[in-house]
Amino acid sequence: MVASRRQNMQMTFLRTKIIDVCIGNSRPLTIPEIQELLRMEKITPHKTSLYRNIEFLCKQNLLNEVMLDANAKHYETTTVHHHHVVCTECSSIHCVVDRTMEKIVQKMEREIAKKMHFHVRDHQFSFFGVCNECFCN
């Protein structure tokens, strides 16, 4: 009970709004995108505060950091494990949930652990290509 109260006290207005902005989007967001969406709601945190709060939310497993390109980290709410497809033309990002693919990846993780004596903690896959809309144009 004490731990849950302590966590509730740490959920500030800004942290709640960051989570709301991420939940309200169907794709992972960069910090500038989160900042802009907050600005649209008349919330203008200092950049340092925004970074610290996002870091806190990641440590609490309320947000996930996703590397979709070398230029920027993206953030999304913690949901069912999934991967992403990224259009290299328009930068659209879509989530991919596939149980068959996950079973194959889990098998690969077991093989890596056995053959390489390596303990996999997590993995991220992103598929890069061209979306149908860009492909047709």
What share of residues is helical? Answer: 40-55%
Please state the overall shape, judged from the principal axes of the Cα atoms.
Answer: globular
Sheet with the most strands: spatial strand order: 4-3-5
Poorly predicted ranges = 1-6
The beta-strand count equals 5
How would a textbook summarize the main sheet? 3 strands, mixed
Radius of gyration: 18 Å
How far apart the termini lie comes to 57 Å
The fraction of residues assigned to DSSP E strands is: 15-25%
Q: What average pLDDT do the residues reach?
A: 88
Name the quaternary structure.
Answer: single chain
Per DSSP, the total helix count is 6
Write the element-wise H/E pattern from the N-terminal end onward.
Answer: HHHHEEEEHEH
Structural class: alpha+beta
Could you explain the architecture of this structure?
This protein is an alpha+beta fold and 137 residues long. The chain contains 6 helices and 5 strands. The protein has helices at 2-10, 13-23, 31-40, 47-59, 99-116, 132-136, and strands at 63-67, 73-77, 83-87, 93-96, 126-129. The strands form 2 sheets. It has a 3-stranded mixed beta sheet, with no helix packed on it. Strand 3 (83-87) and strand 4 (93-96) form a beta hairpin. Helix 2 (13-23) crosses helix 4 (47-59). It is globular, with a radius of gyration of 18 Å. The relative contact order is 0.13. Residues 1-6 have low confidence and may be disordered.
SSE arrangement:
Layout: H1 2-10, H2 13-23, H3 31-40, H4 47-59, E1 63-67, E2 73-77, E3 83-87, E4 93-96, H5 99-116, E5 126-129, H6 132-136
Parallel strand pairs: 3-5
Antiparallel strand pairs: 1-2, 3-4
Helix pairs in contact: 2-4
